[in-house]
Amino acid sequence: MSSWTNFLQSSHEYEKGVEDYLDKSFSTRAIGDQITCPCKVSDHRFWHCKETVFNHLIAKGIEPGTEEWHCYEKGMSSTSNTERDVEDMHYDIERLIYDVRRDVAERLYMCLETAEVMRWHDEERKKDELLRHPDDGGAWKEFDQKYPDFANET
């Protein structure tokens, strides 16, 4: 770790180091007005605004071994290919979903009987533009027996 992180958290040098770190962090890796907090409690798991991160670092200290500190102190680029990674991830997810759907459809339509049943709504159903009621079903017959006056309300 850099020398200023070894100062007491209440010292002016430590506070100046935190301010410099936050300036660099928020200029390079903020999303909106927040970054992941590198304090010992948050350990980059929670996003906070600049003031909150500052207060956390002063009160709780920095997580030892935090790589971002090394990157900023050595002048290394801390930017990543996040946008490209996210785009690649979306493509990968879409591809996985497509593959799963294709495999399920292939297995479903392998059986001739299943394929016929799956096509019934398109091939066999009456297409006279009327809204049909599934009154032939057992559930509706039971409903009609329990509530015989239901249909008479209209």
Essential attributes:
single chain, 154 residues, 6 helices, 4% strand, Transpos_assoc, Transposase-associated domain-containing protein
Can you offer a commentary on this structure?
The structure is a single chain. By secondary structure, this protein is mostly helical. The chain folds into two domains: 3-74, no CATH class; 81-129. Helices cover 56% and strands 4% of the residues. The protein is built from six helices and two strands, in the order αββααααα. It has helices at 12-28, 50-60, 67-74, 82-110, 112-123, 138-146, and strands at 34-36, 47-49. A two-stranded antiparallel ribbon has the order 1-2. Helix 1 (12-28) packs antiparallel against helix 2.
Flag low-confidence runs: 67-79
Distance between the termini: 80 Å
Number of helices: 6
Shape: elongated
User: What value does the average pLDDT take?
Assistant: 77
SS-derived structural category: mainly alpha
Q: What fraction strand?
A: under 5%
Rg from alpha-carbon coordinates: 32 Å
Strands in their spatial order, largest beta sheet: 1-2
Q: Helix and strand string, N-terminal first?
A: HEEHHHHH
Largest beta-sheet details: 2 strands, antiparallel
Instruction: Give the domain tally.
Output: 2
Helical residues, percent: 55-70%
Task: Please count the beta strands (DSSP E, at least 2 residues each).
Answer: 2
